[in-house]
Amino acid sequence: MTCLRRTCAALLLGLGLCLATPAMVSAADDSAAAAVALQIAQDGRVTDAAAILTAEQRTVLGERLAEIEARTGREVVIATVPSLAGRDIAGYARDLGNRWSIGATDDDGVVVLLAPSEQLVRIAVGQGLEDLLTDAVCRDIIDSAMLPEFREGRMHEGLAAGLAVIDAHL
User: Fold this and answer.
1) Do residues 135 and 90 make contact, with C-beta atoms less than 8 angstroms apart?
2) pTM score > 0.85 for this model?
């Protein structure tokens, strides 16, 4: 993910939804996000730094991600973070993808980033997948598959539902 130009984001506020736009991202936010993202070490396909998933849930999601990669050749990872510490989620997701070299070969990786304390979720897509996972598709995945589960406190189910739809588009 050398360049994650386009990414999809949703701001979860109660039952409301606000979409972050590229205009909201500043260079300062990107630098700060890079610094915070460097502190999170990748832990396989599912990095649960927010500690919201059980070991079994991480295993199930990791196996699903491995299946997607084996079948499509596209690398998809999930990361949860305890806090963005005021950072922009777009820059944070991009920096994680770049640091971890997600989809580095053909810039065709996907980072699903969940920051539960800020109630933010983002699907960051490498350039090589922008035609398959457009901004509109990512918004729809978040709105229809993930948010209903997240609103009920079912984080694992929301991530699994989002993965199923991402998989269908790959």
Assistant:
1) no
2) no
Distance CA(113)–CA(95), nearest Å, equals 11
For the chain, give the number of residues: 170
Tens-place pLDDT, residues 45-73: 999 999 999 999 999 999 999 999 999 99
pLDDT digits (tens, 9 = 90+) for 123-135: 999 988 988 999 8
Confidence of residue 39 (pLDDT cuts 50, 70, 90): confident
Q: Which domains does the chain have, with CATH numbers?
A: 7-169 (3.10.310.50)
What tokens does 41 get? 């070490």
pLDDT value of position 37: 52
The answer to whether 121 and 9 have CB atoms below 8 angstroms apart is yes
CA 105 to chain centre: 19
